[in-house]
Amino acid sequence: MFLGRVIGEVWATRKVADLEGHRLLVVEALDAGDDPAAPMVTPVVAADPMGAGVGEEVLVAFGKAARVACGGDGDYALEAAVVGIVDSHQLAKEGSS
Amino acid sequence: MFLGRVIGEVWATRKVADLEGHRLLVVEALDAGDDPAAPMVTPVVAADPMGAGVGEEVLVAFGKAARVACGGDGDYALEAAVVGIVDSHQLAKEGSS
Amino acid sequence: MFLGRVIGEVWATRKVADLEGHRLLVVEALDAGDDPAAPMVTPVVAADPMGAGVGEEVLVAFGKAARVACGGDGDYALEAAVVGIVDSHQLAKEGSS
Amino acid sequence: MFLGRVIGEVWATRKVADLEGHRLLVVEALDAGDDPAAPMVTPVVAADPMGAGVGEEVLVAFGKAARVACGGDGDYALEAAVVGIVDSHQLAKEGSS
Amino acid sequence: MFLGRVIGEVWATRKVADLEGHRLLVVEALDAGDDPAAPMVTPVVAADPMGAGVGEEVLVAFGKAARVACGGDGDYALEAAVVGIVDSHQLAKEGSS
Description:
- The structure is a homopentamer.
- The first copy, chain A, is mainly beta.
- Chain A has a single domain (2-32, 40-85), classed as CATH 2.40.50.220.
- Helices cover 6% and strands 41% of the residues of chain A.
- The first copy, chain A, has 1 helix and 7 strands, in the order βββββαββ.
- Chain A has one helix at 64-69; strands spanning 2-11, 14-15, 23-29, 44-48, 57-62, 80-85, 88-91.
- Chain A has a 5-stranded antiparallel β-sheet.
- In chain A, 56% of the residues are buried.
- Chain B binds chain D through residues 5, 7-16, 18-19, 24, 26, 28, 39-47, 53-55, 63-64, 67, 74-80, and chain D through 1-3, 29-34, 36-39, 41, 49-51, 59, 61-66, 68-69, 74, 81, 83-97.
- Strand 6 (80-85) of chain A pairs antiparallel with strand 2 of chain C, so a sheet runs across the interface.
């Protein structure tokens, strides 16, 4: 799972049936780590069963976890989903805990 | 899943039987994120059950999701597929939603 | 699996039911390798069934392994978990073993 | 799946039984994309049920897809395999299709 | 699968029960490819059912393949394992095969 921010939404009229009825959000990973910063990574498109809004911090899961989160039985044509909307996160520098 | 653009096609006469009858598209990830840009990533080869054309924006899924999208029963020798053809996407800068 | 350090924690009130009752830790990969250093990678959010504290070195597993570690039956909406708290690690330079 | 070139072979006398009888090829991803080039990625070692030769362009699949391609029933200790030998590929610049 | 070198070992007293009895090796990917070199990647921690020593070249597999290699039935809290100890590998420059 990763911590990300919703930066947009994707619309596709022509899609596999399993994707009908799911909002598809574009989520960018947040680099919560110490310096030096990690290189940016290409955003993920995640189905959203949680109702997240653009700008919110979310938790995204992949693979079977995403299908379970969307209510599928495992045979589902998606593999990334929002599994939580983040209230807050706290980070500590090494040794400062 | 990721947002990509179809940049080409691959032909292979000698291939495992499960790949017969599927177009194999070369898809490059789009960097929809904020600056700084993410480094480019090596393109993915995805089976295409949707009829996407070169130049179109598509949504690509991996693993079991791809096999389900291609109508397989899960025992299928492919693990990336086009699951949607994108009409549009909208991106918002952080805080501008 | 990777060797990481716990650098923080995430709280989410709105989350899929499967995540209830799990602490969600932010874990940064340690670069244990030879020079030159590997580029930093974006931290992972992992469920923690082990009781790791911020600053501790942990072992993180992905996918089904993570679900098994958290006591799930495989149909579980998470895919990263702490599977061990590291006592120590020893590294040898190439050829010095 | 990705488009790669066979750049070598690996021999291992001591290996898990499931790998017996499979050639193990070293495959490097081809960067078929637009400029700027993607960073190189570490080569993959793939089982080869297709009889690919060094220097040939191949299609490599991961995970269950690779096990299916090698004739396994899914309980197989490998997760990358050559699934096709590429005759040709055609790439179009964005907008030139 | 990837070609790596064992660079160390990890000890964890507090770990999920499935990891008991497995040595946990730190393995760094070898860049067997052509120039330019690939960026280094963060080392992997792999269970070792093969008895590899520090400094040896090994083949590492992920996911279900790793669990099968370790004798698990698939419900096993690990996802990376040494599946072979490399005798030798041969690499050819493009076109020199």
